[in-house]
Amino acid sequence: MMKIKTPKKGKIKRALEKRAPKLVETGKKTLILQGTKTSGVLNSVLTEIYHLKKDSAVRYTRKNDNIRPFENGGVTSLEFFSQKTDCSIFVFGSHTKKRPNNLVIGRMYDYHIYDLVEVGVENFKSMESFSYDKKIAPIIGSKPFIVFVGEGFENVEELKHLKEVLLDLLRGEVVENLNLAGIDRAYVCTAVSSNRVFFTHCALRLKKSGTVIPRMELVEVGPSMDLVIRRHSLPNDSLRKEAMKTSIDKPKKKEKNVSKDAIQGKIGKIYVPDQKMGDMNLPNEAKGVKRERREAKLNRDRNGPAAKKQKENSE
């Protein structure tokens, strides 16, 4: 017989339920890690990406020499780290002579590689290199604007793919209602050419306009960099169709006294109320009662005084 292990502690059970598939998924977590060799620029890029997504990111600072996202067999450790940290997006940094300041941004589906975009970082400026009023600094965890400027994001395949990945990386948790007063920053991505994107991070400053609606200004707070697209890998059609599948059914209400088992299937408990036989309405004279009465009357007629007197007269 198969033995299915079930969690005994409530903490473990809640953790498994949190990772289980849901009709409405929560925000995606980001895994940030590095390869065998990195540069000072790349370390600063990874640190500042982690700072921007500190509320929903995991940062690994140790070197990983067996991770190569675009090669077969080079994603085993990456998928293991993704399952361990429950992260569906990763940012991997590496530095080689052939590909300096290399950044790979990828998405996972069911803890396996879904798609990849490889970019090179150029003209990097950190947050510390910008001078601005600290009072307008964006708050970590706030909801940002994301702006894509340029026709290339609609026409060029590589830029369209980069746009999808950056949206998943930067937008955080998807919400239905939004308070505009809580939006204090914006990510601006400008398509300079067919393979180059200028990325910058700005704070929103509210100015008086003489009307009820304030005038908004963008103040660059960093980081800013040029992203040069090098390689990208798209998912196949079957995997994309499976990943894009959504449920149109509403979440079902909890069924009482019903449980499911992997071996026995659906199991239900039935509670039968007490049967009060004394209060049941029965017919006044059943067939058995009538037959007994007829037999008793016949016996009385045979053994009664009239029968005895008739017997004596006949003698």
From TrEMBL:
Q: Which UniProt keywords apply?
A: Nucleus
| Location(s) in or outside the cell | Nucleus, Nucleolus
GO cellular component terms, A-Z: nucleolus
Q: Which GO terms describe its molecular function?
A: rRNA binding
Q: Which Pfam families match?
A: Brix
**One GO biological process term:** maturation of LSU-rRNA from tricistronic rRNA transcript (SSU-rRNA, 5.8S rRNA, LSU-rRNA)
* Keyword Nucleus on entry: yes
Claim: Nucleus is one of the keywords in the record: yes
InterPro entries hit by this protein: Brix, Rpf2
Q: Which family does it belong to?
A: Belongs to the RPF2 family.
In its UniProt entry, what is this protein called? Ribosome production factor 2 homolog
Organism in which the protein naturally occurs: Punica granatum (Pomegranate)
